[in-house]
Design brief:
It contains 6 helices and 4 strands. The protein is mainly alpha-helical. A 4-stranded mixed sheet has the order 2-1-4-3.
Length: 233
């Protein structure tokens, strides 16, 4: 058996391992778990942001309420306006101040109303998201268990194949095996492909004249385009 045939046999077994790996990576169990983790991560970040926002809004509301109280207290001074006018006070001055204070009080009222609504909306969002997050955390544990169960099943399959690969690798030169594994880590598969009419059968690139000559002697060349090993069947 030539070294190309040995490597093809290794690749055939390796393809079974790749299939198991892809089944696990593309499984619904893994997708469910990834979605749950992603939701919980983002929800936790949003909850923290909402919590900080709530503190800021509460502080602002406290300041506005204090300002409202101060303005109301100033407005209360106008309760004795009749007495002041009887004492000869300038009515136009007091009317102007009264109008300004009333307008300021109205503005603060609007700010307080808007802020109160913002706090209410923020709190409702927090409560809704908190409930959903707790539910997803519980669901995520179930997804984790299902994924771990599938992973254990696939590990049994892959362990059998890896034992077969370890045995087959003994028939392949170490330097060849090293190059094979290097390409495998780059997600190139299949790694060994047949030549077809002077071209790479995988990507269709034409081989060089030197490469074609090497194939005739039973050698293997590397495709300049997809970097797979090319052999002559």
């Amino acid at each position: 058996m030539t070294y190309v045939e040995k490597l093809l046999k290794y690749q055939e077994a390796d393809e079974k391992l790749l299939k198991v790996e892809r089944e696990l990576a593309g499984s619904q169990e893994r997708k469910n778990l990834a979605q749950a983790v992603n939701f919980v991560t983002k929800a936790t970040e949003r909850l923290e942001a909402l919590d900080g926002k709530a503190l800021s809004l509460a502080s602002t509301l406290e300041e506005l309420n204090k300002k409202y109280a101060d303005v109301s207290e100033t407005l209360a001074e106008f309760e004795n306006l009749d007495e002041l006018l009887e004492g000869g006070a300038d009515i136009s001055f007091y009317k102007k101040n009264l109008a300004q204070i009333s307008e300021k009080l109205k503005s603060i009222k609007q700010e307080v109303a808007a802020l109160t609504k913002a706090i209410k909306d923020s709190n409702e969002e927090f409560q809704t998201l908190y409930t959903k997050n707790r539910a997803m955390q519980k669901q995520g544990k179930e997804y984790q268990e299902a994924y771990e169960k599938l992973k254990a099943e696939k590990r049994k399959e892959s362990d059998i194949i890896k034992a077969e690969l370890a045995k087959l690798s003994q028939d392949v030169a170490p330097e060849v095996m090293q190059r094979y594994q290097s390409k495998r880590s780059e997600r190139i598969f299949p790694i060994l492909c047949p030549e077809q009419a002077g071209r790479c059968s995988k990507c269709g690139s034409e081989l060089s004249l030197a490469g074609k000559e090497k194939l005739l002697t039973g050698g293997v060349v590397e495709c300049d385009n997809c970097h797979r090993f090319i052999y002559k069947p």
